[in-house]
Automatic annotation (TrEMBL):
The keyword Signal does not apply. It comes from Paenibacillus chungangensis. Keywords: Hydrolase. GO terms for molecular function: hydrolase activity. This is Glycoside hydrolase family 88 protein.
Amino acid sequence: MWQAAIEDAMKKTKRNGEKHGLQFPHIRRQAEGKCYEWGPSTDWIEGFYTGMMWLSYEYSGDTAFRDMAQAQVKDYRRRLDEDVALDHHDIGFLYSPSALAAWMIEGDETAKQLALDAADKLMMRWRPEGEYIQAWGPKGDEKNGGRIIIDCLMNIPLLYWASEQMGDQRYREVAVKHADKSRRYLVRGDDSSYHTFYFEPSTGIPIGGGTHQGYHDGSTWTRGQAWGIYGFALSYRYTGDKQYLETSRRLARYFVERFPEDDVVYWDFNVEVNADTLRDSSASAIAACGMLELLEHLAEDDEDRAYFQDAVERSMRSLVTNYSTMGEPDAEGLIDHGSYHIRGDLGPDDYMIWGDYYYMEALMRLEKGVPGYWYERKEAKTGVK
C-alpha cells in the first residue's frame, strides 16, 4: 500500500513541477473544484512543496526532481535577500525542507549557508524580555507583540541545527527557552493544547491562552495538537531532555484517544460533530509523522510502542484509502479534505500543501525509513541514499 501511494504522489509532484515551473502552490478560499492557486513565493507554506521534490528525489533517484528542487532553492535565497513576506516565525517551515534538505542530500555548501542565514532571520524574532519567539508581526505590534503559537515548535529545529553547525550556543538556548515556554503555557493539564498564548510584551507576564484557527479559545485545534506531538519529539532529539519526550507522548495519546471512526480527525477536537463537520486530513498526516518520530525514541519494551505504531498505521491506511487522490490522475493535491482556517473561510475543505508534504514524509518513513528534513542525518553527503 505505501509503495503504490508513494509512486502516485511522485507522479503528481513531478507533473506539478513540470507544469508550473517556479510557481508555488497556494491555498484558495472556497471555490468550485479542487486545485491549488499557483504564484510566486510569498507565503509561509512554499517549503513543503520543495520538500516534496527532495523526498521524491531521495526515493526515486530521478534527477528531474533534484533539478526542480535546486531551482526552487535559488528562489529562497532571493526571497531572504529581498526580505519578502518573512515577518513571521515560519522560517523553519520555509528553509528546512528546502535549503537544509539540499545540504543534507547534496552537500550543497551554498544551501547550507542559506539555511544558516535563515536561522539568523528567525533569531530576530526572539524577545528576551519575555523569553519567547514572537509568532507574527513586528516587535511592538499591538495585537501580536506578545503572542506565541504552537506551530513554532516545528520552526525551532532550524535553530538547534544552526547551533550544532556553528558551535554557537545562543541558537540552542533560544530554542530551548522557547520550547520550555511552550511546554508550560501551551500544553494544558489534561494534555490538550492552546493554539496561541499571550504575554505582556515588556515584562513577559502571562496573560492567557487563545486561538486563531481553532473552534474557540478553550478548544483543541487538531493541527496545533499535531504540531506539538512532532515538535516536542524533535526538541527531545536535539536536547535529550525527557520532559519533551513525555510531553510529546502525552499529546499523542490525547490525539489518538480522539480518533473518529475512520481514524482521520476533524478540524477541532471540541467542535460539534455532525454530517457537515469538516475534517483536517493534514492534521492526521502531521500527527502520523510526529508519532513516527516519537517511536524512534521509545525503548523497545515501552508499553506505548505498539499503541502508537497501530495508531499511525490505522490513520495512514485511512488517508491512503479514503482521502488520497490515487484514483484521480489529474489531481494537483495528494490528499483531500484538509482545512486551513475554517472560521476565516480560507481553504475550509481542500488540498493543503503541508498535508501533502507530511503525508509523503510519513509514507517514506513507513516504506523506507527515510525521515523528513527537520534534523541533519549523520551519514555522509553523497547524493541519494
